[in-house]
Specification:
14 helices, 333 residues, two-stranded antiparallel ribbon
Length: 333
Amino acid sequence: MALSISSFLMVLAALALSPLCFAFPYGGPFLYPQFYDHSCPKAQEIVKSIVAKAVAKEARMAASLLRLHFHDCFVKGCDASILLDSSGTIVSEKGSIPNRNSVRGFEVIDEIKSALEKECPHTVSCADVLALAARDSTVLAGGPYWDVPLGRRDSLGASIQGSNNNIPAPNNTFQTILTKFKLKGLDLVDLVALSGSHTIGLSRCTSFRQRLYNQTGKGFPDFTLDPAYAAHLRTRCPRSGGDQNLFPLDFVSPTKFDNSYFRNLMAKTGLLSSDEILFTNNPATMHLVELYAAHNELFFQHFARSMVKMGNITPLTGNKGEIRMNCRKLNQQ
């Protein structure tokens, strides 16, 4: 068994260090970065400008916009269903357990869409706005740049059930999280690389409280959490109350997109259980954590590649869906 695990890790290391040519260059035959070059040539410039203004006003917004794209793609594909408000037969995904009192940045998306509609009406989809805003937020926080495949269209509905069931949760087991990724066509490398987005942003006390007091169900804290770090967290995350108190996902460099998140996992100072288990529950993900902790550029390369891959989860193209004029509602409403 030891030999087989060792051999697997050698293969994984070779894959991790391989050039990006193994990845599909854009995101599928229907999505490509030049999609709006003629129909709305200033589209990317408009998105970048408004995102930059929002992040300059509040650094946390970079993580918020990146998270919107994640939470959109994992439900019905990357189709901007997360942006729809409840109305008529639509029950908004904004009220789901992972999103309620948590996802944010909708006003920034509204501002971007309004500017795009003035520049080139009924042309740029809300789904593509989310994908571009996620990339621009990453770059503004110091992370990698990638060409965003474009050409998505917007959904005609939402799925609060899908939002509740499909988005990985902070307290999910490793196997549950991996299964949720695999169901979307993402693999183990994507799981670790994309989890690295937690190098920026904040999380609520309610998302990790059980690690501090009752991880085992028998009243004991999580033994994979550094005791000194746990004591620090308890000062603002009590057994009851303080649910909405915010904590940096990466306490070392909370607004800088870098690989310190992975070094934190190795030091048992990952904030969420779903983060720390990448280092403690599986030898293959442990090896990737070690690789990314040692090689920031490798993490950046894999993160960019995995973002393109995630952005290609069942997009609506051609005549499917619509190009919403207001991201919060269908055109016929």
